[in-house]
Design brief:
By secondary structure, the chain is an all-alpha fold. It has 3 helices and no strands.
């Protein structure tokens, strides 16, 4: 175990009926998927910055930059 809270969580899981353990597992899977999705969104946004910079950073829009 890596930390005391992990031990506490495991003890609590052991006390749950099987159907509740399944719910916990589903929730953990949801959290992992959401984390991965957020990581992918950030990666795509970072990768697209150079393309958007050409569109956003132009003399015609310089007046808006000063607002």
């Amino acid at each position: 175990m890596s930390n005391p809270s992990e031990g506490n969580i495991l003890e609590k899981l052991k006390e749950l009926p099987p159907e509740r353990v399944a719910e916990v597992e589903d929730f953990v899977d949801f959290l992992r998927a959401r984390t991965e999705e957020q990581r992918l969104v950030k990666s795509v946004a970072k990768a697209s910055e150079p393309a958007f910079t050409r569109v956003w950073d132009n003399p015609e829009d310089a007046d808006y930059d000063r607002l």
